[in-house]
Amino acid sequence: MQPTTRRIEGNFSQGWGVALFIIALVAGAFTTAGMIHKKTYRHPRDVTGEYKRQEQPKGEAAAAERGH
Questions:
Q1: How far apart are CA 35 and CA 27, in angstroms?
Q2: CB–CB of 56/64 below 8 Å?
Q3: Can you say how many angstroms the Cα of residue 2 is from the centroid of all Cα atoms in its chain?
Q4: What radius of gyration, in Å, describes the C-alpha atoms of the chain?
Q5: What are phi and psi of 57, to 5 degrees?
Q6: Residue 53 buriedness (CB in 10 A; 0-12 / 13-18 / 19+)
Q7: pLDDT: is 52 or 27 the higher one?
Q8: Is this prediction's pTM over 0.70?
């Protein structure tokens, strides 16, 4: 095979549409996650939060009620 003096042009503009689409999807996902987090997150020391109280074992609860 003999070397050619002909210039071979590269077509490097393919795929930019797909790359921009993926970037838009990622930006949308981060925005959605941020909005959901902002609406639903409660700090562990939030006084308005509804949390389960830790129940005492039955033996200790009965002794506390009797005053022992």
A1: 12
A2: yes
A3: 57
A4: 32
A5: -60, 150
A6: exposed
A7: 27
A8: no
